[in-house]
Structure formats: C-alpha cells, structure tokens
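Protein entry
_____________
===
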Amino acid sequence: MSRFALTVISMLTLSSHGFAQKPFLPPVSTYSIVARDSITGEIGVAVQSHYFSVGPIVPWAEAGVGAVATQSLVDPSYGPLGLDLMRAGRTAQGALSALVSTDPGSEVRQVAMIDSDGLVAVHTGGKAITEAGHKVGRQYSVQANLMENPTVWDAMAEAFEGTKGDLAEKMLCALEAAETEGGDIRGCQSAALVVVSGNSTGRPWEDRTFDLRVEDHPQPVAELRRLVRLQRAYNRLGEVGRLASKNPAGALKVAGEVAALVPDEATNGEIPFWIGIDLLDAGQEKEAVLFLARAYDQDSRWAEVISRLPAAGILPDDRSLVDRLIEGMKQ
C-alpha cells in the first residue's frame, strides 16, 4: 500500500469518521446514480433527496479520477477521500473497501464509486433504512434507501440502460424513473447532477460539463432537467464564437441550434445577445441584429450594454456600427 493511501486511511481512523462519533444528523435518504459514458469517457453522479441542499453532501466527481455518491446516514468524507484514493491509483472497489473497513458506522452507510476505467463498487450497509438496495450494471451503479418501494433501483437501472443520449440525459432519466416508481417515502426536496470529462485538463472549470444543484424545490428532478437544458445551451454558446472567423455559415447554423434549445425568456435575453455579438465577428451583421433584437425584447437595457462593449474591446470602436445595432434592436 502506498504511503499516500496509508495517510488517507490514517486520517479516516483518527478523525471523526464514523457516524457513532458525530452528533446526530438527519439521514440523507435518497436515490442516486454514478456512471461513466463508455464512448466519451465522461464520468457523472446524480442524486435526489428529501433533504435540503443535497448537492454539497452526496455527489463528488473529478475528471480523470471518478465519481462518488455517499448517502443514507451519511459520512460526506467518503467523497473527497474516495477520490483521493482513486487518484492515487486505487480502483473504485479498492478505494471503497479501504474506507468501509475503517468506518465503525459502515452498517448505516450507502456509498457507490466509479473510477475512470468504469469499474464500479457499491456498499449498502445492513442497517440502511428500508427500503434500501442497489443494482450494478456495465459502468454504472444505482442505489437508494428509505424508498416507498423496493423496485426503485431496478427501475433506475432499466431507465439508464434504455435511454439514448449523453450521460447527463441518461442519469436524468434514471432519477425520473425513481420518482415515478415512488421515490423517497418522505417525498422530494433537492437534487444535483455533476458530469466531468474523462481526462483532466488541469483546469477543473473546463472539465465540469455539468455542475448543477436544486437546493429546495417541490419538484427538484423536473427543475434539474430545466437547468440541464439551460446548461446545454450555454455549453454550446462558445461554439458560435469559435466558428465565427473560420466558418461563418457554420456559426450561423450553430447559432440557430443553440437558440432553439431554450426560449429567449429563459435567459432574459442573455443567449440571443451573445449569439448576436459572435455573429458580428462572423461578418453577419444582418443576422446579428435579429438576435440582438430578441434580447432587447426581453430587456431594453441590452441596448445600453451594446454601447459599453467597444471600450472593453468586444466591439470595434465604431460609433456608426453601435448606432446601427441599437437602432436595429429597437425595430
């Protein structure tokens, strides 16, 4: 065993790791999924719980390393410590086994891990509140506790395997299937979804394709789907700018696809506005004005934003251009 791994396990043993050593906390009873996309290598975790702000507690993921879902009578340290061990070379099973073996409260835990190779490990303690269970499939694991029905995790697995689309879509469908099957016996409150790249660039902000949380909502999974749709639009927004100078026609095509993902009012004009600015770089002023006008329809202050961009170097220092754009926005 490496010195690093021994240090991590020693930290666990000497710290407050183990629920019996901690003040009582409400159980983060929940359903979740950890998974890897076998084509892109993306790794993700998604969760819903009848618990306020589940996002900082249950889901953990790191590009090129893996993902963790830690729940039930939860010990959040399984998240960062599991990632530490996988980063140091442990498989998901090796990391989970090391942590469970040093945890005096392991019987009340439910934890799942997946590593960058898609290897999966899961632990449902014998004292996790029923209905509790899990199911492991190819490069994924679904797990749940305190459910209305013992069929929740099977329904999640079926939905994940039967859904076409990217990893975020497949995990969302798994959460929706859990809710349809009865979900948490107490109801629902918060949700979260994280997707990271299969390989690390060293720039974590670029490696996190999705990092979304619903802290408190009567329908958190439905709200999470709305946020995923928004994130998809923002993720693709950069494509317009990247294509602008090299492929103006391609930039215009992508602009239409991005704008179609969400209505203008969903972003208060933000997406059509910046599409318009990028199309100006592509030399397509007429089309740019059409998008800028859509932003103006949501909030007239976008016209003032236009006037401030030349000083920041985002638009040419050309007063006649600015005037044309503003006039076109208002028509």
The domain at 233-330 is CATH 1.25.40 (Serine Threonine Protein Phosphatase 5, Tetratricopeptide repeat). Residues 1-24 have pLDDT under 50 and may be disordered. The longest strand covers residues 30-36. Residues 220-244 form the longest helix (25 residues).
